[in-house]
Amino acid sequence: MRGKEESTKGTAMNPTGSKNKSDTMTRRGFMQHTLAVAAPVLMAASALPGTAAEPETAPAPARKLKVVCVGGHPDDPESGCAGTLARYAALGHAVTIIYLTRGERGISGKSNDEAAAIRSAECEAACKIIGAKPVFAGQIDGATEFIRARLDEFTKVLFAEAPDVVFTHWPIDTHMDHQVASFLTLRAQMSNPQRFHLYFFEVNTGSQTQGFAPNVYVDVTTVFEKKREALYAHVSQDGEGVWRNHHEVVAKFRGREAGVSAAEAFVHLNRDLPISRLPGL
After folding, report:
1. In the CATH scheme, what is the homologous superfamily, with its name and number, of domain 63-268?
2. What percent of the chain stands above pLDDT 90?
């Protein structure tokens, strides 16, 4: 609910040339107006359970949510929102990561089958750290498809999890597999009566994710090390280097935007489920 509005009109002058007091925004009024505008964006970072205590010590949730993250390749979900997923898991919610592919073409000198086996094992290790269940959607790295048959099979995989909250790639991305993962998820949500809250995450912003302007932040300070360890689990992809050169930097930058030590940022698809913070957190 909005409080009594302060005037934001330009300052008027009376016939004597002095300012009309009633039309002048005071310094306090300006700050109140600014905070009223900024509060919905910052709320997810400043009013989440677990900010005053470790998530492991937080009380059990009133209702167990089903949280799903859809990523194009192994390590994409970990890069984009491992911290948020870890927080959900620590609060007792069911977390599933759907990997669209097994990263078959992601290891130089290895066959598709060899790379898939290595990277699937890395997914298992990362998910164990986060507290998530891994699921593989069956598409092939570098050859993903956004066609009716693929949409139908993906929708079955997604809705088998009966999700309440879903995370996926921001669709404006230089990697086609990321785009396909995003549009499959978006199309599944739009075409199915079983609706869910949809959030888009960022990966390698600037080099892959493009034009990303978040409207929700999640404080991941208490699970920062879990996010790092989840990336480190992807040894074949130099997870340590990827973390140090990309995602550690982004997490701290988003934290500065939100006024915390480390944060993950999202764009909430604000269709018919308008909220200002993540449900269940």
Report:
1. LmbE-like (3.40.50.10320)
2. 64
